[in-house]
Amino acid sequence: MQHDKKPSDSHQSAGQSPHQSVDHGARERPSQDTQRHGAATQAQGAASERDPLVKAVRQRRARHAQWQREGDLSVGRRLAQIGVLGWIVVTPTLAGLYTGRWLDERAGTALFWSAPLMMAGVCLGGWSAWKWMNAR
Question: Where are stretches of biased composition, namely Basic and acidic residues (predicted)?
């Protein structure tokens, strides 16, 4: 298919195809719409950094990449994690129970301090275990 030269193509030089444009040194300024769009895109980028959904997706992507690099944990490693979790929960529970019994002996009460301090230990241990699991 051959292109015939039209009168409107007179701005093109003889060596250029009809699809090439000639730059006469005049540069176009970005329109206000383009400038607004750029500012809006930057604002969306900043807002997406604070978006919890975006953070969760990025964290999941990072974990998936780590899993692909390192693979699954061995059985021994999983058992070690279970053991650590057990001690993370049990240690504050027993510390609370021991402290409560000691206070009950000193104050002459039956379970006034033992039960609440044991429950506080369970809560502290559960929170610590949750933090430990989410850090991994």
Answer: 21-36
